[in-house]
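fold-stage: in
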Amino acid sequence: METEVGRAPAWRRAARLFTAPSRTTEAAPLRWDLGFSLACLAFALITALVSEFYGYRVWGNFATVAYGFGVVHSGYLLLSARSGRTPRGVFGSRWCGIAAVALLAMILPLVLLVIRRLTGVDWLITPFSWAAQPEVWVIERSADLLLHHGTPYVDVTALGRPPVVNDYTPYGPVMAVFGLPRALFGGTPVTDAFTDARWMFALAACACVLGTLKLLKWPRVPVGAAQLALACPLTALTWAVAGPDLAIVGLLVLSCALAATGRAAWSGLVLALVVSAKLIVAPAAAVLALLVLVRRGGLDWAALARFAAALVATTAAVHLPVYLVDPAAFVEHVFRFPLGMGVVRSPAASPLPGHLIAETGPIGQVAAFVLVGAAAVAMIGWLVRRPPANGSAALLRIAVGLGALILLTPATRYGYLVYPLVLLGAHLAFRVAEVPAAPPAQQSATTSS
């Protein structure tokens, strides 16, 4: 029997890491870590081998090393747990794999791609040469347009040539702020490297994380939360090649933290900036409004009024000046183009259900919008029956709502799934922060025992 076990196929021996009983209770999270790293490794390897984008392939090579390390490390921890040993030091922590992703799959590829971008490959119709995704160039251009013309949107009917996709800026006016450093200080290789919009997105995302953790009084973030919000491939890839979605979802989480801690007006202001940068997150306003209303157990209409006033006033202050400069261009870029009604059709596509259904023909397009409507009705019913009473509940509802919208909308990209993933990770962190502390007497009894 020993011989037969020893000759078991390699795949069966590997499977035992997931199925065999262990001597400790630590095996379950370690099995999750191993499965997570294996799935991420597969994504990174496929991206490195088959992606049409240069930046994606560069990221894929770095990420393959990072997630490969995660597989080895989590496998080592799992084997140690099964044998009853507890590794000590840095390599004994589950956070080691997350640190590897942060360094090898986020920071290093971003540095390399920023330097590679200095060779001047922006705006070429050659995805295999792009060191930054088009949204980076477009946002930097929008900042320059805002400085010189008072609007980040060009009149695509007055270009003197047929418009193309990259003539559009399908974002709200606030998104141009991330390109202002490049517009103001760029022009040399050194300043261009330091003012790449991706640094601005990364700094904004990090600042939002720190601000949120401070508002939550520095909770002990679960490893699973960090895996979903930070170490998953969509977050790491977005960080290296683009970045705006991370800044937006970071601001959204910060707005939720402000609402959950009783800062209704500040929450409305930050949420207005979020919606004024990317309209896709607008449904979150309904969730946070309910959170502000019911957070204290009753109906706090005064807090809701402060939230709504800040949201509306800030949104108007941001949009109105830009709209008045060129109303037609504003509508064309912000609304018509994303909806597929512009002079140029949005190329947004993905293997997600909504797009696949819509591609079957006119009936499929109608069916896709019917599904979006049904999802919206279901979300409204959920919110009415069980309004969110704390930050974690609000984040869960926003994650589910945005996830459904992204999956079912005909014109979308799979990269947008970074929103629900980050929000679910934040949900887990908020849930830890919301657990009430044990009374002093109970803490003393626990300590003495």
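fold-stage: in (second)
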Amino acid sequence: MGMLNPEKVLKKYVPMTETAFYILLSLDEPRHGYGIVKHVEKITKARLLLGSGTVYGTLTKMQKDGMITVFADEERKTVYERTDIGMLILATEINRLKELHENATKYGGDIDDYQNI
């Protein structure tokens, strides 16, 4: 059935790679692989362009680990959605990123002085 122990999955995925984070984030609604690629491209203003090999490799791994599941198998397109474990992982990572942002803002000094170096 795959890895459904939340502790093991948390250890494996948090901190997340940016690719895994955006793939999981983009499953705020069921999407197929190409839909994920286009959504990530849009929300990162084309800063992050995911290759299909990367996306499908990550989706396969996440499915095996119980983070996502197949929502529907349409004609030649598999549509994925997040599971409860996937939501737990995403929430944990978002909280970690919030802490990073808070600490960067609090202790980062005047980073604006370095923006254009």
